[in-house]
Amino acid sequence: MHSFNLLNQAIQIAGLNLRNSMVMPAMLTNFSDSRGLVNDRHLAYYRRRALGGAGMIIVEPSYVHPRGRIRNEQLSLCDESALPGLRRLAQAIHEQGAQAAIQLHHGGRNARSLVTGQQPLGASPIPTPGLEEPRVITPRELNEVIDSFARAASLVRQSGFSALEISATTGGLLGQFLSPAANVRMDKYGGSPENRVRLLKAVIKAVQDEIGSDFPLICRFNSQEDPSIKGGLSLKEGKEIAILLEKAKVHAAHVYVEYDGAPQPLDQRPLKKAELLHLAQSIKEAINIPVIAVGRIDPLSAEKALRGKKADLIAMGKALIADPDLPNKIKEGRLESVRPCIVCLRCIDNVRTDKILECTVNARAGHETEPSAVPASPTRKVLIIGGGPAGMEAARMAALRGHQVTLCEKSPRLGGLMVLGVILNPDLIELKDYLIRELRRSQVRIELNREVTPALLKEMDQEALVVATGGIPVRPEISGGAPEITLNLCDILGLLNGKTPPVVNPIKGTLWRLAAWVFKYAYHPSLLRGLMTINFPVGKRLVIIGGKFAGGELGLAYAQKGKAVTIVEESADLLSDLGPTMKAIYLAKMKKHGVTLLKEALVLDITREGVHISMAGSPQLLEADSVAMAGGLKKGAQLIHHLQDYPDPVHLIGDCNEPARIKEAIAAGHKVGCSL
Ligand SMILES: Cc1cc2nc3c(=O)[nH]c(=O)nc-3n(C[C@H](O)[C@H](O)[C@H](O)COP(=O)(O)OP(=O)(O)OC[C@H]3O[C@@H](n4cnc5c(N)ncnc54)[C@H](O)[C@@H]3O)c2cc1C
Ligand SMILES: Cc1cc2nc3c(=O)[nH]c(=O)nc-3n(C[C@H](O)[C@H](O)[C@H](O)COP(=O)(O)O)c2cc1C
Ligand code: SF4
User: Fold this and answer.
1) Are 183 and 190 in contact (CB under 8 A)?
2) Domain co-membership, 245 together with 289
3) Do 301 and 422 lie in a common domain?
């Protein structure tokens, strides 16, 4: 068993005692309304994270001035109307034993006129790419900003928070002044690091004058900016800034690296585990105040970092959205029961598209106020059909509530489409394994290789039925489609589960049967990923019909294995089922790996030579050795016609109800499992 002595050890920031070294960093939630007030959703969400054992919770970026507001749903620290809610929030966190801090934020050039009704203000007239051009802030407005931070700090102290964090990353005005790429001023606020840090220092001084220099004050700033940004902050300058902050009597440095204009800013790309630790280490070498490190730091890397004195505290963001109990599980040595974040960035995409924060793997994140696993009364015999994410979550929750649950899965293994997904996307492996582990630990009776047929249904004595059989593949009607080179995503999944696809070329037939037999007994994602380099079942030149996420992921995985991949999409929008962050990431990766993307391309025919398409009215042949049909799924279940007269409640969930993604499947499973 691993030891996490240092992570679990209590630590102090300016005399403030934290029960351990784990910190939840500030993350927007979009839970508020246009008044910017704390509501029950905030209380439940943050209370839950505090209950999970974190040493300190830093509540989301909250605007100190209406002109610096970046979202309609952001929390306000502008005036006294915020006080009652803030008091309840600080209390809710403290009651669970965590220290409560909150981030003070002014969006600067990132504020949106749609939200504020005014042009954003910046250090210089340089916009964040994709956002509005700011007007240069006037000296009077600068004084107003300084005053607004001081007023906000006073509200924080009055409402009982035990610490505050000033946001000085480039996501806000103070960080934009620090950045040589965003600040090209020639006055006392521009040029040297001393000048660029002047505004931040003035803010710190005003805050200290208002609430005292002993009140724990954390500053989040960039150790460097994304190296792809021309003229961005260097690590050398980041260290100089850290030293100046220490001199200004900041009590802890929260080391970040991001740039809103970078092609893939830090929080908008899947980081490798502990990828940024070396930056925290560099800053720590320069200063003597506690350093908080952040950036997909897993428990093992965290403990190692503390032991190696690379940081003093560890911030865990998405990991705590995914599993608020992570700190307690670390303390109790229960790492195997940690619900893993799969870095799908759905949380970020929700927030970026003005929805509330939600999470793929944790259906309760953002929904903590809704009823959970209360004991069922009366308890019933429940049959779950299908062992994909929807069925597994429904079964687990229903069993947790006391129902007698049986889950039937027709294939030899649990996971549903994730059995295929993990081969293409290794980040899913931990989630699939977690869902299976938790299901096996529950009281659910699991029957594999058990297809529920209408006849079987009649035989089974059940009192409630949950159908989670997945979507039905859309098979485009293409005249003369050559079956010998054509594969369907579900055929590939079937093959992995030991089933020979229905239509195969006679020469390849034996190979298919052999492969199906082997995979039935020897399925291992990394082995199968390795096999993707050979020319079976997919040849060297692969054309994928369907440019939504499933087709895109398949194409990318094969391109990474050296195949020549072309994706054909009928509509004008590729990856239309992804949020903006993931879409940008996938498109960039596809470009890097040479995937040809054809939009508004109509498939006319598939022959042994390849795929005949029409683009802008002109026909073309895309030569191919294999063609994969990834036209998506449609809702429906083969059993559906036999369920109309079923005497007990029937629930259709997941892809068979509405094809979407794992997030929707788990959420639907959770909801039905909690409501049966
Ligand atoms: C190639 C590919 C990659 C994907 N990658 C991602 C990704 O990275 N992230 C993401 O969020 N989503 C991804 N998805 C989508 C995601 O996998 C699905 O949305 C999700 O698996 C749906 O879950 P489900 O439980 O509703 O159905 P499924 O996962 O389809 O599970 C249904 C299960 O029911 C079983 N079953 C069917 N009929 C019966 C029966 N009569 N009796 C017993 N068992 C039966 C099936 O064998 C299957 O195991 C991907 C999809 C594809 C096709
Ligand atoms: C949904 C979401 C919203 C975030 N919003 C902010 C923000 O407004 N300001 C900020 O400084 N960081 C924000 N972050 C970044 C986190 O604070 C954290 O630094 C980042 O997620 C990396 O840490 P992690 O890998 O442990 O999640 C956000 C992260 C997430 C997931
Ligand atoms: S939505 Fe995805 S990235 Fe965000 S916390 Fe959940 S699993 Fe992690």
Assistant:
1) yes
2) yes
3) no
**pLDDT, tens digit, for every residue of 607-644?**
888 999 999 989 999 999 989 988 888 888 777 777 77
Q: Does ligand 3 lie within 6 Å of residue 344's CB atom? A: yes
Number of independent structural domains in the chain: 3
Q: Which residues pair with 102 in a beta bridge?
A: 59, 164
Backbone φ and ψ for 60, nearest 5 degrees, come out as: -50, 160
Asked if residue 424 and residue 278 are part of one domain, the reply reads no
The bound ligand whose nearest atom lies closest to the alpha carbon of 656 is: 1
| Residue 116 phi, psi dihedral angles, 5° rounding | -95, -20
Instruction: Supply the CATH number for residue 582's domain.
Output: 3.50.50.60
- Check if 359 has its Cβ closer than 6 Å to any atom of ligand 3: yes
- CA–centroid distance, 551 to ligand 2, in Å, is 29
In the beta sheet, which residues pair with residue 474?
A: none
Q: Give residue 368's identity as a one-letter amino acid code.
A: E
Find the 588 Cα to ligand 2 centroid distance in Å: 22
| Residue to probe by mutation, ligand 2, list 22, 267, 351, 359, most atoms within 8 Å of CB | 267
pLDDT score of 200: 98
State in Å: Cα 345 to ligand 1 middle: 20
Tell me the CATH number at 190: 3.20.20.70
Relative to the CA of 321, which ligand 2 atom is closest? 31
Q: Same structural domain for residues 610 and 669?
A: no
230-241 per-residue burial string, b: 16 or more CB within 10 A, e: under 16: eebbebebbbbb
Is there a domain that residue 481 lies in? no
Please give the single-letter amino acid code of residue 93. I
Q: The CATH number of the domain where 432 resides is what?
A: 3.40.50.720
Task: Give the global pTM.
Answer: 0.95
Q: Does residue 136 belong to any structural domain of this protein?
A: yes
Q: Is residue 371 part of a domain?
A: no
| In a shared domain, residues 144 and 240 | yes
Q: At what angle are helices 506-521 and 489-496 packed, to 10 degrees?
A: 50
Q: Which ligand is located closest to the Cα atom of residue 390?
A: 1
Residues 633, 674, 372, 671: what is their CA dihedral angle, to the nearest 10 degrees?
Answer: 20
Q: Judge if the beta carbon of residue 347 lies within 6 A of ligand 3.
A: yes
Q: Are 467 and 559 contained in the same domain?
A: no
Closest-CA residue to 103 (of 252, 227, 239): 252
Tens-place pLDDT, residues 382-411: 999 999 999 999 999 999 999 999 999 999
DSSP 647-668: SS-EEE-GGGTS---HHHHHHH
Q: How far is the CA of 30 from the centre of ligand 1 (A)?
A: 30
**Could you tell me the residue range of the domain that residue 622 belongs to?**
486-633
Ligand 3 pocket: which of 45, 323, 347 to mutate (most atoms within 8 A of CB): 347
Would you state the pLDDT for residue 584?
87
Report, in angstroms and rounded to the nearest whole number, the Rg of the chain calculated over CA atoms.
27
pLDDT score at 185: 96
Which atom belonging to ligand 3 lies closest to the Cα atom of 358?
A: 1
Residue with tokens 């529950």: 442
Cβ burial, residue 403 (10 Å; 0-12/13-18/19+): buried
408: in domain: yes
Residues 313 and 404 occupy one common structural domain: no
Number of other CB atoms surrounding residue 498 within 10 Å: 18
Task: State whether 167 and 248 are in the same domain.
Answer: yes
